Every structure is written in structure tokens, then in C-alpha cells.
């Protein structure tokens, strides 16, 4: 699993919401960043469930959510 070399994911900036229709919305500081659907949403939820079964901390889940959003940050996003 990748690491957070700069320690930026310690504050829990990513969150997700699973919807009834199977989609998953991943947000950054409360703002929706990406929507996963179909097989991508299933894989995402399976990875998070695997982390939970392994007993890993929230930081590992933050890494998975950051990975799911892709490279969306370019330095011009406001908070």
C-alpha cells in the first residue's frame, strides 16, 4: 500500500458516502470530488471492508480514498 510521505492525510480530509443505488461519492473537506459507480464502487467498498477486517487505522482508509479520487489537486482549490 502506498504511504503518505508528507503526512497530509492525518486530519481525515477525505470522506465517502455509499448511496442506495450502488454509487459511492468521495468528498474532500465535505466537497464532492468524485463519484464511483458499478465495478469501481464495488472495488472501493471491498478495499475499505478489507482494511476494517484487518484492523488497520483510519489513515489507511484515507489513503484508499485519496487513491480513488485520482490526481484532482493542482494547487488551485480553495477550502
Distance between the termini: 28 Å
Q: Could you state the order of secondary-structure elements as H and E?
A: EEEHH
The share of residues in helices is: 25-40%
Report the mean per-residue pLDDT as an integer: 80
Number of helices: 2
Q: Which strand order spans the largest sheet, edge to edge or round the barrel?
A: 1-2-3
Rg: 12 Å
What structural class is derived from the secondary structure elements? alpha+beta
Strand composition percent: 15-25%
How many β strands by DSSP? 3
Largest beta-sheet characterization: 3 strands, antiparallel
Shape: globular
Low-confidence stretches: none
The total number of structural domains is 1
Description:
With 79 residues, the protein is α+β, with helices and mostly antiparallel strands. The protein has one domain. The protein has 2 helices and 3 strands. The chain has helices at residues 39-54, 58-69, and strands at residues 14-18, 24-28, 31-36. It has a 3-stranded antiparallel β-sheet with strand order 1-2-3. A hairpin with a 5-residue loop joins strand 1 and strand 2 (24-28). Helix 1 packs antiparallel against helix 2. The relative contact order is 0.21. The mean pLDDT is 80.
List keywords for this structure.
single chain, 79 residues, alpha+beta, 3-stranded antiparallel beta sheet, 2 helices
